[in-house]
Amino acid sequence: MLKNSRSEEILRLVNSKGSISIQELSENIYVSRSTIRRDLEKLEQHGLLRRHHGGAESILALRPPRIIRRGWNQAEKNAAASRAAALVMPNSTIFIDASTTAQYMIPYLAAIEGLTVYTNGADTAIRLSESRIRAFCTGGELLAESMAYVGSAAKDTVRRVYFDAMFFSSAGFDDGVISDWSEGETALRRLVMEQSAKRYFLADHTKRGKRFTYIVCRLNEIDGIFCQ
After folding, report:
1. What is the pLDDT confidence band of residue 1, given thresholds at 50, 70 and 90?
2. In this prediction, what percent of the chain has a pLDDT beyond 70?
3. In percent, how much of the chain has pLDDT > 90?
4. d(CA 130, CA 119)
5. What's the first-to-final CA gap in the chain, in angstroms?
6. If 0-12 CB within 10 Å is exposed, 13-18 middle and 19+ buried, where does residue 13 land?
7. Cα–Cα distance measured from residue 81 to residue 79, given in angstroms and rounded to the nearest whole number
8. Where do the H-state alpha helices sit in 18-139?
9. What pLDDT, in 10s, does the model give residues 111-160?
10. Are 152 and 193 in contact (CB under 8 A)?
11. Cβ atoms within 10 Å of 40's Cβ, excluding its own
């Protein structure tokens, strides 16, 4: 969360109205529209709202709390995770992102000998450790809404590692494009792709047909997709 009263007031207004224009925010907070635009950009980077032409909308309805999302479509996520985990070789080094979908791989990874897993997910790292899987967390700036580490420190960690494979999810995919609403998480995923020999996308059916602001990649840039 951005620690200033103006950002907090913007977020309060967006969440209370669901969708609000830049003009209305400007009139309520008594700052210029250009200032509002800059604040909205920062709030979107932190995954706290979603910008649209002329304003912003709340993500509370679009993206319920993480603990709720983790329980959605469990059978689909588990099926995708088991198929993806079957590709992980002993003594390999892989990356799994902070998504709740990728977390479903963890029970299947526990039996793989010599495995090393990197992640930018705070609770993902804990779950890996609980399963006695050798795990490293990127560190960096922690986004409260997604429990994902992003930013320069996370990127520095990723740049020091060559991954045999990466496994990730996102907010949606449509017309051959995988996208997300978090600029920070998208940027880190893009960097991990550059450092990985293989790239695999996991999703449940609710992600189909959805398009968001930031492009993670095109489907032709990945080696496989696991989606029911």
Report:
1. very low
2. 92
3. 64
4. 14
5. 34
6. middle
7. 5
8. 22-29, 33-45, 66-69, 74-85, 100-103, 106-109, 122-130
9. 999 999 999 999 999 999 999 999 999 999 998 778 999 999 999 999 99
10. no
11. 24
Whether 63 shows a pLDDT value over 70: the answer reads no
> Exposed, middle or buried by CB within 10 Å (0-12, 13-18, 19+), for 53?
exposed
Pick the closest to residue 59 from 47, 46, 70, 76 (CA basis): 47
As a whole number, mean pLDDT of residues 3-10 equals: 83
Number of neighbouring beta carbons within 10 Å of residue 37: 15
pLDDT at 71: 54
Token pair belonging to 34: 């250009």
Pairing of strands 55-58, 49-52: antiparallel
Contact (Cβ atoms closer than 8 angstroms) between residue 208 and residue 173: yes
Q: Taking residues 53-69, report their average pLDDT.
A: 68
CA dihedral 105, 209, 15, 60 (to 10 degrees): -20
**Amino acid letter for position 69:** R
**C-beta of residue 75 within 8 angstroms of C-beta of residue 91:** no
**Exposed, middle or buried, 111 (CB in 10 Å: 0-12/13-18/19+)?**
exposed
CA atoms within 13 A of residue 146's CA, in its CB half-sphere: 31
Alpha-carbon separation of residue 29 from 43, 51, 54 (angstroms):
16, 18, 16
- Confirm if 178 and 216 have CB atoms less than 8 A apart: yes
pLDDT digits over 93-104, tens only? 999 999 999 999
At 40, the amino acid letter reads L
